[in-house]
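Each record in this resource describes a single protein on a pair of labelled lines. With that in mind, the following record should read easily:

===
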Amino acid sequence: MAKSVSKETPLMKQYNAIKAKHPGALLLFRVGDFYETFGEDAILASKVLDIVLTKRANGSASHIELAGFPHHSLDSYLPKLIRAGHRVAICDQLEDPKEVKGIVKRGVTELVTPGLSFNDNVLDKRKNNFLASIHFGKDRHGVAFLDLSTGEFMAAEGDTSYLEKLLQSFAPSEVIYSKSSRKQAQELFKNEFTTFHCEDWVYQYDYTYEKLVSHFGTNNLKGFGIESLEQGIVAAGAILYYLEETEHKDIKHIASISRIAEEKYVWLDKFTIRNLELVYPQQEGGIPLIQILDHTHTPMGSRMMKKWMVLPLKEKEHILERQKIVSHFVEQEELREEIVSHLKQVGDLERLISKVAVGRINPREMNQLKKALKSSLPIKALLKEQKSAALKKLGDQLNPCDFLLEKIEKELMEDAPMLLHQGGIICGGVDADLDEYRSLATSGKDYLIQLQQREVKRTGISSLKVAYNKVFGYYLEVSNTHKDKVPPEWIRKQTLVNAERYITEELKVYEEKILHAEERMISLEQKYFLQLVQDAADYVTHIQQNARILASLDALLSFANVAASNGYCQPKIAETDSIEIKDGRHPVIEKQLAIGEEYVPNDIFLDNDHQQIIIITGPNMAGKSALLRQTALIVLMAQMGSFVPASYARLGIIDKVFTRVGASDNLSKGESTFMVEMTETASILNNLSDRSLVLMDEIGRGTSTYDGISIAWSIVEYLHNQPKCRAKTLFATHYHELNQLAEDFPKVKNFNVAVKEMGNKVIFMRKLEKGGSGHSFGIHVAQMAGMPNPVVLRAAEIMKHLEKDKSLQKQQEKLRDIPKNNYQLSLFEMDPKFKAAKEMLDNIDINTISPVEALLKLHELKKTLEQ
C-alpha cells in the first residue's frame, strides 16, 4: 500500500506550499525562463491564453497538467487573465539559480487583481481603475474607492441608493466586502462587478482606523475630512489591508484620502446616469455625452473629465471659476493651441509618478517623466502671463521640480532602453569607473590593438600577437625567432613547437576588467538609476499636484474647444429658482445629423411658481424625448463648468436631476418593463427636493391605457401639490387626456411638439409650441414604419369609432361596439361575392383607367357586393 503513494518532487512541493497561501488566485510560477501553471490553473490558463496544455511527472507514477509561457511575455499574457476577471499571483525566483545548490527560493512578489494593477496593458489610459470596498451598516453604508495606479483615494457613506449611484459613477473594476455581507452584496451588485470577500475581522472600526492613521502618519483623520464617517473609515481601512495581502507594500503615492462630499455635487441616481447616457451609451454603437465633450490631450485629463461628468458641481463659486477659465480660452484661440501643443508632450504624468513611488518605473518611462516636467514649464510661463486670476493661480501652483529635472537630464541617456539590464542608461561623465567599464566593454579590441602596437615598438618583436583562450585568458604570443627580445617582466605561460606564450601584469589587470566590465557596467548603471528613482520619489506629492492641475487645465481646454467649434454659449448661473433656455439643442444628436440638415432648437422655461410642470404631447418620433434629455444635459453641462448648446441660458442651480426616460426592460433579471418603470418613478418621488429637475417620458405605457393614464395623472398632481419640493418637471406623454390637468392646476402648462399634416402624411416640425396636441398620430407613424396597409386601415377605423366620444367611460363602452372586421377570410373558403369583386379589381389597370371608367367600375363593384 505504501508503495502506491507517490512522492511529490521538491519543485512541486514548493509550488503546492505557495499555492496553498493564495487559493483564490491563479499562480504564475517562475521556473527558469518560463512562468508555469499547474493542475486546474494550467487548464484554465490554456483556455484563456490559448496556450498548449501538456503534462509533466510529479514524483513517482503521477502526472500533472502544465501550461506556460516565456517570462518576457508576461506583459502580453497577464492582461488577458485580468480582463477575464481572474486574480493572478506572480511567483518569482528570489535567488540567482547560478549561486544556489538545490531548489531555488521562490515567493509571490505581486498579486494582480482586476482592481489592482500598474500594468499599462491591463489599464485603460482614459479611465480610472478603481478598487471599491463596501462596508454594510444598518441604515448607512461605507464605501471607499482607490485607484492604485494614480494614488487617488476617496471615501463616502450613505444609504443603498447612494451606494448604487457611486458604484455606477465610478464603475470599479473590483469590489471587496466582508464575508458575512455576502447576501447583501449579491443583492446590490447583481453580478455586475468582479468581487472578493475578506474575513469579517478586517471590517472592524478600531482596526481600520488604526490602519489609516498609521499609513498617513497622523494622530487622527480630521485633516482629511472623514473623521466622522465611521462606515467610510471601515471601508477605506479594509482597502489598505487588501493592499498588504496582495503584496502591494510600496504605497507612498497614496498620500491622502478625501471625502466624496454629497453636498457639493448634483445628485444623479443610477437610472439618470444611464438614461442620459453621460458616460456609456445604452445601445451598442450609441454616442454618450462624454464622447462629445472629451477632446482632452492627456490620459489624466480624460479621467478628470469623466469625474466631472458624474459629479457636476452645486457650488456657484466653483462653477464660475471653471466658467471664467473656459471663457478666457474661448476668446483666445492662439493661447489654446499653444498650451495644447505642450500638453500633448506630457503623457500620463499621474501614473508615471505612481510608478516612481512603488519603484516600478523603467528608464524609458523616466525619460517620459522628464519630458512631462519640461513640457509643463512653458505651460506655467503662459498661465502666469494671463490676466485671468484663476489661470495665474494654476500657473503658480505648478511646481517646476528644477533639481529633479536637471538630475534626470544630466544622468539619464536620451535614448535609454526600457530594460535595466540592456545597458546604455546612464550618461557619460557621471562616474569615471562607469565610463571606463563602458569603454572596455565597447572598445576592447581597440585597446588590445593599441597594446600590441605599443609592445611591438618597445620590444622590436614584429610578429607579436595578442590573443585569448578560455584556459589562459589573454596572452602575448612570440615566435621562437624573437624569444631573446622578450622583456624580463613578462611571465611565460605556455611553450609551443614554434612559439612561446606570455602574460603580463597589465594584461592580467585588463583581463580582469574586460571580463567583468559589462557586468560591472550594468551593476553601476542600475545603482545610479535606482538612486535617480529614489530622488524622484521625494517629488511624488509635488508631481501629483502638477498632474491634477494639468488634468484640470486639459479638461477646461476641451470645454473651450468644443464650445468654440459648436457655437455654445456661456450660461448665466443665477440666484434664481428658474431654468431659462433659448434655442437649446441636444449636444449629441446635433452632431449626428446628415450633412445639410440642421437641428431644430427649442426654448424651455421652468420655475417653481408659474410654470413648474410642462406637459408635452405630440406624436412618437416628433422629438419629445430629445427635448427632455437636452434640457437635462444643458443643465448638467452648465454645472460642470462647460458652455452649453443654446443661444442663451440663465439657470438657477439644480441639486438633483431625475429621469424616467425610455423603456429599459430587465426581463433577464425577472423584471417587466412596467416594474422597472415604476421602480425608477418611485425612486424619483421619494427623493425630491425644491431644486430638483424631473424628466418623465411616457410614464405608464407599460400597462393598460386606463391604468397608465391614471398613474400619470396622479404623478403630475403629486408633483404639483408638494409644498416643500416644487420640482421643475418636463412630462412627455402620448396621453393627450393629461392636457386637462392644466385647467385644474395653475403651475401645469401644456405644450406640444408641432407636426404638419399634408394629405395622409405627417411632417415632424420638432418645434415646441404652446397648447396640447389633439391626437398622437400613432397610426401615421405606423404607416411610416412600413406597417402592412390592411393593419393601418383597420387601426384608423377603430380610432375613428373611439374618437366619437372622448370620455373614458364612453370609450370603454365603445370598445365593445367596435365594428367587426368583416373582411376576415373564412377558414374554409372565400365568400363568392368577394371572390367576384376581387377578380374584377385584379383586372383593372389603375395606371390607365380614366376617371369616368373608374366611377362606372365602382358602381359595378357595388352592385356585385349587394347581390
Notes: Residues 832-866 form one domain. The mean pLDDT is 85.
